[in-house]
Amino acid sequence: MYEHIPVLLEESTSYLVTKPNGIYVDATFGLGGHSKKILEKLSSNGFLIAIDKDEEAIELGKEKFKECNNIKIVHSPFSRLDEVLNFLRIDKIDGILFDLGVSSLQLDKPERGFSYNSDSFLDMRMDKTSKLTAYDVVNKYSEKELERIIREYGEERCAKKIAKEIVKRRKQKPITTTKELNDLINSVVPRPKDGSNPAKRTFQAIRIEVNGELEEIKVALEKSIRFLKSGGRICVISFHSLEDRIVKEFFKYHSLECICPKDIPVCVCGKKKELNILTKKPITPTKEEIERNKRSHSAKLRVAEKI
To answer: What is the dihedral of CA 64, 65, 66, 68, to 10 degrees?
Structure first.
């Protein structure tokens, strides 16, 4: 039903699965592309826990993998990784994969309200049980809040202009659909030279706000390191600079032995090195992959190993 091509599939799963009998977590199950590849690399004694906050993804996944005995599919945000593993009575894992951002299931279904290429209600919730929607953000946030979100989460230079226009339009009537928001942004922001839609950054920003994505990433990364065995790996695929910066800084901090100021002769911080960074530079898709799957063009894979 949906076009779904897993990004950096071979690269990420090859780094991740080092023990065919190990226990692994796919923290962003989606439509199960990475999970399927991980299971192919596992023996019958290996085990995979697949997590997703999108209930629709869980339902589709349980049907897709119903004949498979060594996978457990769990409906949960990955920031609650500790609760999932504790419930399953799993103390340690051999690796965890994060494929961040929005999934094909969410983008390709117009009624989910993620895409500026469709005309549907402004929703953008990855977990449909949560209360906050894109409609709420667009119609209830103050102009100052909108400007901050669009600038910080969308890295949009025209954030002030967009926020001002949103507030002006919603005074006349609520902005209810993705098309209305898309047309509004296109009316005040010039189209880039590359021909891309100027609404892209604002839609990204609102989606991140609705789903609390950046904070979830920070929480989940910190929790994952506690469950990794020695030699276990964290593999993270990010799609924009905000995500990648969080991952890069997390890996860097946990790969340091000491964070004391340089002028202190003896370490007093007591910090211990926990990770070895295996990808000094992030792995990016090949030209062939980008041609095959345009959504992969901005992807970056970073990998670290627990000491």
So the answer is: 160
